Amino acid sequence: MDMDKKQTALWQRFTQTGQVSDYLRYHESTRREQENGRRRIENSSKYKEFY
C-alpha cells in the first residue's frame, strides 16, 4: 500500500472513531516519512540529475 493511501486510511479511521490511538497511528506514519529527509528530497526531485 502506498504511504499516502495508508496515511489517508489511518486519518479516515481516526475521523470516524475519534480515538486517540487511531490518531497516534496516523501521526507515527507521518513521522516515519519525515525522518528520512534525504529520501524525501530525492523523491521530490527524482527527475533532476544532480544526485
Structural overview:
The structure is a single chain. The protein is mostly helical and 51 residues long. It has three helices and no strands. It is elongated. The two termini are 27 Å apart.
Keywords summarizing the entry:
mainly alpha, 51 residues
Secondary structure blueprint with pairings:
Blueprint: H1 3-17, H2 20-35, H3 37-44
Helix pairs in contact: 1-2
Short account of what is shown:
The chain is an all-alpha fold. The chain contains three helices and no strands. It has one domain.
**Topology pattern, helix = H, strand = E:** HHH
From the N-terminal CA to the C-terminal CA, the straight-line distance is 27 Å
Number of domains as seen in the coordinates: 1
**Count of β-strands:** 0
Described by the principal axes of the CA atoms, the overall outline is elongated
Fraction in helix? over 70%
Supply Rg: 14 Å
Name the beta content range: under 5%
Secondary-structure-based class equals mainly alpha
Average pLDDT, to the nearest integer? 77
- Uncertain stretches of 5 or more adjacent residues: none
Q: Main β-sheet, in a few words?
A: none
Q: Given the structure, what is the number of helices?
A: 3
